[in-house]
């Protein structure tokens, strides 16, 4: 499938690797990225194996850098099944400054199936209620070209459905990461804050 793109000259680039799961509102997500000022290109699964798919994405990233786009302005977002592709693409690119965001489905078994070392600034985001998604930290272990990393655990109650729509719970961390936000290494839990109930009068 050919990549679709919204062209915004001088904007930070965002390569979106969508999930193949049903029920995801990809159009709304791409629109939300565009509303935040990204020049968005979507590279969907085209029936190839994982490694070939990842090489296709890595070639796109390298082409952008060859055109003069700073690595710091390139953002690769893998959602669901796209997370594995973003992971393998980062290993093929080998640049410590490209931004990667893995939205759910971090699978530590990927490290056993493929021999790789990630690169770039890597943010993993998952929901605490999604029991099928694991920590992203094993994926970037022993990867000296990973310059920054964070495993962000949200507590939204959406579970695996969190990334099916452009929700602020994951969009805001993505925006901060794409802007070079400094974070502490490790796992951080973010919980929703509920306003206290007003006291009843006596």
Automatic annotation (TrEMBL):
Superkingdom in the source lineage: Bacteria
Protein name: Alpha/beta hydrolase
Organism: Lysobacter cavernae
């Amino acid at each position: 499938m050919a990549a679709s793109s919204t062209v915004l000259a001088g904007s930070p680039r965002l390569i979106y690797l969508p999930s193949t799961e049903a029920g995801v509102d990809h159009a709304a997500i791409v629109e939300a990225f565009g509303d935040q000022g990204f020049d968005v290109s979507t590279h969907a699964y085209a029936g190839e194996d994982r490694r070939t798919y990842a090489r296709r994405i890595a070639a796109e990233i390298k082409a952008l850098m060859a055109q003069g786009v700073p690595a710091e302005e390139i953002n690769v977002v893998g959602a669901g099944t796209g997370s594995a592709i973003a992971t393998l693409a980062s290993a093929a690119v080998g640049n410590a400054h490209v931004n990667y965001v893995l939205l759910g489905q971090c699978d530590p078994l990927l490290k056993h199936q493929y021999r790789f070392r990630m690169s770039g600034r890597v943010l993993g985001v998952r929901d605490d209620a999604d029991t099928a998604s694991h920590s992203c930290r094993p994926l970037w272990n022993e990867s000296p070209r990973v310059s920054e990393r964070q495993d962000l655990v949200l507590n939204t109650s959406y579970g695996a459905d969190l990334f099916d729509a452009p929700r602020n719970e994951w969009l805001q961390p993505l925006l901060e990461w794409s802007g070079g936000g400094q974070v502490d290494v490790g796992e951080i839990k973010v919980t929703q804050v509920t306003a206290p109930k007003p006291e009843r009068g006596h």
